Amino acid sequence: IRLYEQFRELKDSTDFAITIDRYALGAAHMLLGRLPEGTVKHLVVTGGEVRKLVTLLVPESLGLLETLDPVVVNQWFERMQTATPQQRAEACGTDVFGAARLLPAASLIRHLCAISGADHVLVPQLTLRDGLLADLLPGAHGPHYLDAQHLLAEARQLVMRYGGNDDYANNTASLAVQIFDQTRDLHALGERERTLLEFSALVHDIGAYINVRERHKHSMYIILAADIAGLTADEQHIVAHIARYHRRASPQGHHRDFQALPRRSRVVVSYLASILRLAYGLDVERTQRIKKVRCEVSREHLLLHVDRRQIALERWSIDGKKGMFVETFGLNVKVVPREGE
């Protein structure tokens, strides 16, 4: 409906279907570009116009979940593309306006299938209202749920959009979750917090797009302003603050944005930003020289064992960045070289 409304002034023009189709192609690229490549297993499309297409193209449909063949949709769209508004209306068994509204739906379906490689589309006989109500049922994931894989794809899109270094971002995220996994007894956080840390580690440096010296602050601004599917408002603030505190000052009493967070969110930020600082410190030269870290927790120390002998730079870097971890967990941090030195 929105796509139709944008181009309704062209509805009687021969350019209407072509313009709709070109715009839908861009929309399909944008939608699928936010997902990891090659991960689309099922394409589910809902909406009144799509259900009308099912009625037209699959007249025997009676079930709650119907299948549309993109080849059939494509053939129908090509016929309608050259038809007059009145011919479309007669073919669709509706008025001119109703027939025109079907074109955007068909165009988007054909492009989504072509780009993703999907050989069919699933069309539930349900409305958006049904989905919203289902999200509110006890035990439901809720309206902001997105699995970790797709949420992290959102983070990588931000890195790409703001000219970040993929190799550096991925390695920092890998080191961060390695430390997280091996220090669970210290922080007692769960899988959702692990995902938030990985997300933060991927995007922590995107603020350099605006200004290198204050990049940690600009990363926070960008994250808060971004449209990130799958994060609640509270989680988006947590991620933004983790990125904010990955370097320079740790949270202070006069930092109003941090102090405005709920208490648990402040704790999560402190824990995860402390861990991110260590991961950040292990790749200070940004060459991914250290890819794996083994953590050893003792009464007074967190030892970071790395598979390198020459670690003078890493020791210097961690010494300058461990302060927040020391304050948060009460453990000193040391980098330990490969055995033999």
Polypeptide structure, described:
Helices cover 57% and strands 7% of the residues. With 341 residues, it is mainly α. It folds into two domains: 2-135, Exopolyphosphatase. Domain 2 (Nucleotidyltransferase, domain 5, 2-Layer Sandwich); 148-288, Hypothetical protein af1432 (Orthogonal Bundle), CATH 1.10.3210. Strands 3-4-5 form a three-stranded mixed beta sheet. Strands 1-2 form a two-stranded antiparallel ribbon. Helix 3 crosses helix 6 (96-116), helix 4 packs across helix 6 (96-116) and helix 15 packs antiparallel against helix 16 (312-321). The mean pLDDT is 91.
Keywords:
two-stranded antiparallel sheet; 7% strand; elongated; 17 helices; 57% helix; single chain; 2 domains; mainly alpha; Hypothetical protein af1432; 3-stranded mixed sheet; 341 residues; Nucleotidyltransferase, domain 5
Q: Give unreliable regions as ranges.
A: none
Q: How big is the Rg?
A: 26 Å
Structural class, from secondary structure content? mainly alpha
Rounded mean pLDDT score: 91
Number of helices: 17
Tell me which CATH architecture of the largest domain applies here: Orthogonal Bundle
Q: What is the assigned CATH homologous superfamily of the largest domain? A: Hypothetical protein af1432
Number of strands: 5
CATH class of the largest domain: Mainly Alpha
Q: N- to C-terminal separation?
A: 68 Å
Largest sheet: 3 strands, mixed
Characterize the overall form. Answer: elongated
Question: Which sequence of SSEs, written as H and E, runs from N to C?
Answer: HHHEHHHEHHHHHHHHHEEHHE
